[in-house]
UniProtKB/TrEMBL annotation:
This is Trifunctional enzyme subunit beta, mitochondrial. Belongs to the thiolase-like superfamily. Thiolase family. Heterotetramer of 2 alpha/HADHA and 2 beta/HADHB subunits; forms the mitochondrial trifunctional enzyme. Also purified as higher order heterooligomers including a 4 alpha/HADHA and 4 beta/HADHB heterooligomer which physiological significance remains unclear. The mitochondrial trifunctional enzyme interacts with MTLN. Interacts with RSAD2/viperin. Keywords: Acetylation, Acyltransferase, Endoplasmic reticulum, Fatty acid metabolism, Lipid metabolism, Membrane, Mitochondrion, Mitochondrion inner membrane, Mitochondrion outer membrane, Transferase, Transit peptide. GO terms for molecular function: acetyl-CoA C-acetyltransferase activity; acetyl-CoA C-myristoyltransferase activity; lncRNA binding. The lineage of its organism: Eukaryota, Metazoa, Chordata, Craniata, Vertebrata.
Length: 459
């Protein structure tokens, strides 16, 4: 498929605002459904997203998640006993706190009577946490759910080799000294080689960076285009930081260190400086570099979800409704990072909207090449007809509505926590920019993806 895709895509037009002209004007209807509870986002926060190995390096994942939960409690004043359920997303789990949602909740002062569980779905883990909360509320099981996500890339589990683990477990069961000595004599030096974690697909053994490079090549996304997009992300993020638009960030007083109050990966550079970097994955001809990729990030987020009735009864003014959402999955070998392309038309069709109805787009930026490839795929009738079973393209989001406050390339990407950031940024942008509908979308490992519609709460 790759060669066929590469040849056919090279002639596709670049994504632009021109596609929007194909669609009808905004309907401005509400997406409320008869007989279905309205689920609202009351508030959402995140601690600053930091590059791994910096101020959070000595902490554990539940420390970050606890800080996000406490930040949410402090900002909302919601009584802890009112929360019916807590669900968190994470990807690389710390063995000691495998259910990080529960450990963080207890640490943040929630009642030990409040259930909590942890979900994992790669880069859309906190998206899954939020939609799990939506399901609990919409079904009438709960009225108040806290959802969030956390990732600590500064300290990931490094295991002994499988042979060494097997030898150690067998040794632990040995009864006599002679049995233990016999087992020890069988251990070889090669057993001590550690198993290092990698951002790679189990099913294909390919790192995500290689997939991004191949995807960029297939869609004829040049190195210059990728660097330009990455520079755009950092420039917009810096502007948003300086103007105080990133209001979901709450300061975190790191034990033994200073208080951190902003994301530390936002670093606008220049095309000249970015152009000096060598390919990070496919050497020497690849186009994906450290400058146009998201970086390893530590961070945590949390959102307060309620039924609309409960929120109003408690005197809250919600920020937004969480409306229709979809999950998709494709071939992880050839279409690993195309989740937004597949999910966007499905969620729009489900809600009865067109691309032109959407005022704000917030897409996860794993790589600049991944974003640009998705925009080209979305703007391609050929791709829609040959791979998506659709008669025509959905169109590409116009860049003047797209990730206007930066994205994962600049703000950072703690795998399990990004989804909540996307939703809260969409909600805040809708209010700031006077829009009604926001569309959040993301790709994820395993060839999966997610899209969700956010509707501004009436002002």
């Amino acid at each position: 498929m790759t060669s066929m895709l590469t040849c056919a895509i090279r002639s596709l037009p670049a994504a632009s605002a021109r596609a929007v002209g194909l669609f009808q004007p905004k309907s401005k209807k509400t997406l409320a459904k008869s007989g279905v509870k309205n689920v609202v986002v009351v508030e959402g926060v995140r601690i600053p997203f930091l590059q791994s190995g910096t101020s959070y390096a000595d902490l554990m994942p539940h420390d970050l998640a606890r800080a996000a939960l406490q930040g949410l409690l402090n900002r909302t004043g919601v009584p802890q006993e009112v929360v019916d359920y807590i669900v968190y997303g994470t990807v690389i789990q710390e063995v000691k706190t495998s259910n990080v949602a529960r450990e963080a909740a207890l640490g943040a002062g929630f009642s030990d009577k409040t259930p909590a569980h942890t979900v994992t779905m790669a880069c859309i883990s906190s998206n899954q946490a939020m939609t799990t909360g939506v399901g609990l509320i919409a079904s009438g099981q709960c009225d108040v759910v806290v959802a969030g996500g956390v990732e600590l890339m500064s300290d990931v589990p490094i295991r002994h080799s499988r042979k060494m683990r097997k030898a150690m477990l067998t040794l632990n069961r040995a009864k006599t000294l002679s049995q233990k000595l016999a087992l020890i004599s069988k251990i070889r030096p090669s057993y001590f080689a550690p198993e290092l974690p990698a951002v790679a697909e189990f099913s294909t053994s390919e790192t995500m960076g290689h997939s991004a490079d191949r995807l960029a090549a297939a869609f004829a996304v040049s190195r210059v285009e990728q660097d330009e997009y990455a520079l755009r992300s950092h420039t917009l993020a810096k502007k948003a930081q300086d103007e105080g638009l990133l209001v979901d960030v709450v300061p975190f007083s790191v034990p033994g260190r200073d208080t951190v109050s902003k994301d530390n990966g936002v670093r606008p550079s220049s095309m000249e400086q970015m152009g000096k970097l060598k390919p990070a994955f496919v050497k020497p001809y690849g186009t994906v570099t450290a400058a146009n990729s998201s970086f390893l990030t530590d961070g945590a987020s949390a959102v307060l979800l309620m039924s609309e009735e409960k929120a109003l009864a408690m005197g809250y003014k919600p920020k937004a409704y969480l409306r229709d959402f979809v999950y998709v999955s494709q071939d992880p070998k050839d279409q690993l990072l195309l989740g937004p392309t597949y999910a966007t038309p499905k969620v729009l069709q489900k809600a009865g909207l067109t691309l032109a109805d959407v005022d704000v787009f917030e897409f996860h930026e794993a790589f600049a090449g991944q974003i640009l490839a998705n925009l080209k795929a979305m703007d391609s009738d050929w791709f829609a007809q040959n791979y998506m079973g659709r008669k025509s393209k959905v169109g590409a989001p116009p860049l003047d509505k797209f990730n206007n406050w930066g994205g994962s390339l600049s703000l950072g990407h703690p795998f399990g926590a990004t989804g909540c950031r996307l939703v809260m940024t969409a909600a805040h942008r809708l209010k700031k920019e006077g829009g009604q509908y926001g569309l959040v979308a993301a790709c994820a490992a395993g060839g999966q993806g997610h899209a969700m519609l956010v509707e501004l709460y009436p002002q």
